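Last lecture ended with a question: if I hand you only a sequence, what can you say about the shape of the protein? Today we answer it with a concrete record. The protein is Ribose transport system substrate-binding protein. Below, first the input exactly as provided, then the predicted structure, then a couple of comments.
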Amino acid sequence: MLRFGKTFASMLMVFGLGLAGSAQAAPAKRLALVQVNQQALYFTQITQGAQAAAKAAGAELVVFNANDNPSAQNDAIEAYIQDKVDAILVCAIDVNGIKPAVSAAVQAGIPVVAIDAVLNGDNQVQVGVDNRAAARQLGEYTGNYITRELGGEAKVGVVGALGSYVQNLRLDGFREGLAQRAPKAKIVGTVDGNNVQDTAQSAAENLLTANPDLQIVYATGEPALIGTVAASVAQGSGERTRIFGWDLSPQAVQGLDDGSVAVVVQQNTRGMGKAAVEAALALLAGQQVTKQQDIPVTLVTRENLDAYRADFK
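The predicted structure:
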């Protein structure tokens, strides 16, 4: 039987401990999330989902708040490239303007995962909702409502965010679905809420004032929906005008309860953040990742609201 001296055995022990120590000391992956803002619940929930997924995986996640400034998003990506983060996640404001910064990150060997807004660029993964298809579904629902409750004809107003690529997709899809199910319904006015709650409220008030016989208002995003609900309360239009929109909030829940809001498209926002982090970590591990990862939506009405109510107390 072979016998090893104490010195050699000690060397083996030290070497083994060294390997174990090296494995334990492997640095955590550093991910950066470039956000639109931290005011809208929609974006804060994406961030929460990403933070929870990063923590569960032992990764570090830093978050940049662009405060609705597309130039700030570009600057942040360039800074993260210099900082040599392992991966970048981005909810883009300007999907075309951000492409050069995304390309620069990929060229630097940093994978990019786009959340929600579709980049169609060098990003390796796209996580989010098919906004046009979901809006078409909402448009069909609205058309069915008009056919059932209003005899097939209605005047419809829109509170949008005309500088937002995503919300313009939601407007296009809504028009398609509405035309299919209620071809006699007419969109008589579109106002720009700029994806800012106070601005959306003022725009919605102007829309309601200019169209006293308006029967339907479609709000293309969370700030637009909250602003429209506030405008409806301020003008007492809840009896004659029904609101259809995107993303639950305490205000939207109250509207569903009192009947001024008919339906809300609810996205799995935390699921988006989680999926984005998991995709980034899979890319870093050299795994095959599906480029397009669609997260389903739910149409929330008074009938199924209780399943979501706890999040908005």
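Comments.
1. Confidence is low (pLDDT under 50) at residues 1-23.
2. The two ends are 73 Å apart (CA to CA).
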